[in-house]
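Ticket reopened. Same input as before:
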Amino acid sequence: MKSINTKLDLQSISYSYEIDDHFRINDLSIEIPENSITTIIGKNGSGKTTLLLLMMGYLKPSSGIIRFRDNEKYLPIEQTAGKIAFLPQNEIVSFKFTVNDFLLLGRIPFIGNISQPTIEDYLKVEEIKKELDIVQLGKKKLEQISGGELQRVRIGRALVQEADMLIFDEPITHLDIGAKLKIFHLMNKLKEQGKTILFSSHDPLEAFQIADNSILIERNKEIIFGSTNEVLDDDNLSSCLGTSIKYGSFEGQKFLILEK
Amino acid sequence: MSTKLISWSLVVLVFLLSISLFIGRYPFPENLNLAFQNDLYINLVSRVRLPRILFSVLVGFGLSVSGLIMQNIFKNPLADPGLLGINQAAGFGAALGILIFSNSFFAVQLLAFIFGILSMLLAIILSKNIKKDERLSLVLAGISVSALFSAGLGIIKYIADPLDELPSIVFWLLGSISNTNWDHLFGVLPIVICCLVILYLYRWRINVYSLNKEVLFSLGIKNDWELYLILGTSILLTTSLISYSGIVGWVGLIIPNISRILMGQNTKNSLPLAMIFGGIFVLICDNLARSLLPGEIPLGIITAFLGAFGFISFLIFRRDFL
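Engineering reply: fixed in the latest deploy. New output:
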């Protein structure tokens, strides 16, 4: 069997917020395998976003190191400019941008400070639009498209960036079911192409739908990492979400039973 | 389509520039031959009107570009070049100059410029000590600095001689370029051209700063120097213009918005168009300022009047405005 490389390697990370010293991460070690989908599951305010920002190198851990595998060697996360694409949950973008112009912003790592986008950049945008099935949206403004379409466009910007690791903060939380499924489908396709995806959610069912591995995070408690089925068992989830939870199963799909 | 619009507006600008030479209170001689023989007329056009016309175009270029950049960086279509308090600070400097150096034109300009730059530095230093998102911190710091200099300006107005100094202060605050001569123009030209060139080169890159800070980080933009370079350059540009012209309002707010309606959000196209439209707008306003009434009307009054009028009509008739 081919051994699976670690894409992102967190080694005994500790972190605490300077403005909120009640929030801490203590001595966390996680190895995110290459070419996988991982979810971070936790309640609102449990620190999912903080963990994502640590993993992309935006926040600096107070101790420990994070290494990122790039071209068959490991680099400290600080040296990886433009290699990890990130979509924040609430992104304030100017909705006057056309989809084309917005996608082009993902080419920033390839365009010099005072240069203009070249034909290659435009071609890459066209390619990604075809792949995401958003060609017809190109000339529309962001304010004219639906929430699901906007989410696909934003993922498009991350793909235009040609990063091979993608970090999404609650990418499907506010979408309707049809749009959710489209995003799932897209994530699976990206995984097949060799991308490593990390996304946060407060819905464990999303994890069961798609994630190979899960990280269960509870405020100031130990963070649990492992395969989704192991991590998100009844006991762990009940204690983390603070309500008693059982799983049911119907035609191979899991659903949650909440105790009244 | 976009390059076409830009070239046509450039043609309009050049056309307006040339007819503006013949607009003014001194009447055009009966025919062109007489005009060339009339030394007074030739002097008037070449020494008074031409530098003033060129300067009005520069003011329009600078304020519109600067306004567009402020609106992009601060993600607010109502931002204008004075967002970080430079208008109030330059006004304070000018008033101080009028008070101390009894209306020496050079001293007034210099102080207006110094205080404008000072307020920017103050706002940046202050913002570094506010523990919020850096662009929000900058806005908040700007509001504080603006209020500070506004109070200072109030004090100076209060103690100024109401017969002599106060009218000069008020006139400066209303904005006017009626005193412009070639020396003034050449004094400000190098700095203005440098700033405009830098900002023009960054015309695509400015788009980038409408993204969140975390996204910029993930795209490999990990430090702030470029943001401060763009911001600093546009403030330097505004300050060097308004220290000569006084406060010319509304140009930097309305013109970028019009340009965005026509060109879209992408600053690669909207920046050049805003620049040319700004030149046309201030040129027309200044022509009105010097020819509408027998006496000079302060330029700032006309830009504010036309600007507000345009703003209201866009709000009512254009759904895609703002």
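Chain B touches chain A at residues 72, 75, 131, 201-202, 204-205, 207-208, 210-212, 214-215, 217-222, 226, 260, 264-266, 268, 320 (CB under 8 Å). The two ends of chain B are 22 Å apart (CA to CA). Please confirm and we'll close it.
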